[in-house]
Design a protein that fits this description.
The structure holds 2 protein chains of 2 kinds. Chain A is built from no helices and 11 strands. Chain A is an all-beta fold. In chain A, the strands form 2 sheets. In chain A, strands 2, 4, 5, 9, 10 and 11 form a 6-stranded mixed sheet that branches. A 5-stranded antiparallel sheet of chain A has the order 1-3-8-7-6, with no helix packed on it. In chain A, a hairpin with a 7-residue loop joins strand 9 and strand 10. In chain B, strand 9 and strand 10 form a beta hairpin. Chain B has no helices and 11 strands. By secondary structure, chain B is mainly β. The chains are: A mainly beta, B mainly beta.
Chain lengths: ~110, ~110
Amino acid sequence: QKEVEQNSGPLSVPEGAIASLNCTYSDRGSQSFFWYRQYSGKSPELIMFIYSNGDKEDGRFTAQLNKASQYVSLLIRDSQPSDSATYLCAVIPPGGFKTIFGAGTRLFVKA
Amino acid sequence: DAGVTQSPTHLIKTRGQQVTLRCSPKSGHDTVSWYQQALGQGPQFIFQYYEEEERQRGNFPDRFSGHQFPNYSSELNVNALLLGDSALYLCASSATGGYYGYTFGSGTRLTVV
């Protein structure tokens, strides 16, 4: 079982719709969770981090964490073509310092 | 405010050679982590440096080594290059180990022929 799993996609949504990206992690004791965006040919860029169960909102982005289900999600409201990128879910497992990344979900927003 | 600076941007090496990649972290950051990203994959953790020591290491062979200098900059060395080492190498800087997320450099694209 991979430590961080994501559907590779591609996920295709029309402009203005809500894009929902999902991620599961294997280590129940993990405490820190991140979403990064990576445009083609570029390096990852931090969008959000979340530590507590529930929702965290920042502009058009909402991160949701459910530790009991070991599930993290990212909602992008009013999706724009400029949101088309690969979204990486990342987790810091307990007892260490490394951040583990999933393989990413490719998102396409159609104009 | 300078972000994370990596050099070189691109590099072509021959199998068996050695390579050194360099990274200057973002101002105010004291921790440097190195990642390898193959095409279509997520970044894979190589190691993390803090206070000039390797604090944690991922599942990479000893051919991969690193160093952190007193000014927090870092180097990644790879010996005896293999074709499979071809990838994007990312430097990520952070404060206090990355618990608030990383700032990535633009990466070094290494091609081994």
